[in-house]
Amino acid sequence: MKKLLKVLARRAIKYYLEALSLPEKYYPETALLRTRNFSDNRLQQINIVNQWREQYSKNKISLRLRDVCFSVFSGNGQDGILLYILTILGAKYHTIVDIGCGNGVYGNAANLIINHGFYGFLIDADQESIDRGNHFYSKLPLLFNNPPVFSQSFVNRENINAVISNSISEKDIDVLSIDIDSIDLYILDAISCIFPRVIVLEFNNAWGPEDFKSVPYCDGFIREWVGGLLYGGASLAAFNKVLKGKGYRLIGCDPSGFDAYFILEEHDAFPEVSVQSCYSNSRVW
In angstroms, rounded to a whole number, what is the distance separating the alpha carbons of residues 33 and 24? Predict the structure, then answer.
């Protein structure tokens, strides 16, 4: 059995690397093995979703985000958290917009696109990453008629609505993900062409829970490392203030303490949490 598993693992790695056209040294085996068997993974997630629905229908109490996290394509449990939130709220539009998607394979969108039939609009400034993503998704027969759409764009607060509107005709979507480690706060504040029900964003936890901080606005801002800390993005308190003004409430963060989740105030399935609690529950902080 162990020999068979090793053979299957090697085949999985070969398939995945061929899909991305990347040398093997770039991706560790542990990251590759969880992305191969899409059909089995989809069935497992359907079973999990059914269990979550049954549990919630009985007591109307939502689970903690840290208790539902798992990763198929994401780095810190975001796949499970997003799927759980959408299970409880109900996915209405099956659309995700991902700003700062990289190659669109590792991130918050891929699991919803591949395993749950979401339409994905994926934005990144790096053309090489987008080329890799397009190549990867072109190898998946299930997505032949519904591949994600990539846009190579260096977004700012002046062009973000035009970039999104060029590919998203409906205003209402289920998920907006943003992670560009730069002027995220300003872009998020500027978005008015879509109304996501769920927002997941990466905040800079080098700033503490009491800090209302962001990098200054600058077109073409590039993140940098200062004294071992990333200088880019904004603090969670700053994001929370902006999104409260847009009608969202903070419902938690992933166990790594980097990604935070917000939902529209009209949904009462998840209680609001404090910014401080997100830091207190972080494994990193």
Answer: 13
* pTM exceeding 0.90: no
Per the CB < 8 A criterion, the answer to whether 111 and 86 are in contact is no
pLDDT for 142 equals 78
Helix and strand totals (H; E) in the chain: 10, 9
Local structure of residue 154 (DSSP, 8 states)? -
Q: Is 45 helix (H, G, I), strand (E, B) or coil?
A: helix
Q: DSSP label at 181? A: S
Q: pLDDT, tens digit, for every residue of 155-167?
A: 999 999 999 999 9
For the cut 70, the answer to whether the pLDDT of residue 57 exceeds it is yes
DSSP, collapsed to helix, strand or coil, labels residue 106 as coil
Locate 125 and state its tokens: 């400034």
Phi and psi at residue 9, in whole multiples of 5°?
-65, -45
Q: Between helices 2-20 and 127-138, what is the axis angle to 10°?
A: 130
Give the C-alpha separation, 117 to 230, whole Å: 35
Output the pLDDT for position 256: 86
> Cα dihedral sign for 79, 85, 91, 92?
negative
Q: Distance between alpha carbon 79 and the CA centroid of its chain, in Å?
A: 7
The secondary structure element, H or E, covering residue 225 is strand 224-226
CA dihedral 239, 175, 255, 209 (to 10 degrees): 10
* Count of CA atoms in the C-beta half-sphere (13 A) of 249: 11
How far is residue 264's CA from residue 249's CA, in Å, rounded to a whole number?
Answer: 6
Q: How many residues does the chain have?
A: 285
Q: How far apart are CA 217 and CA 31, in angstroms?
A: 35
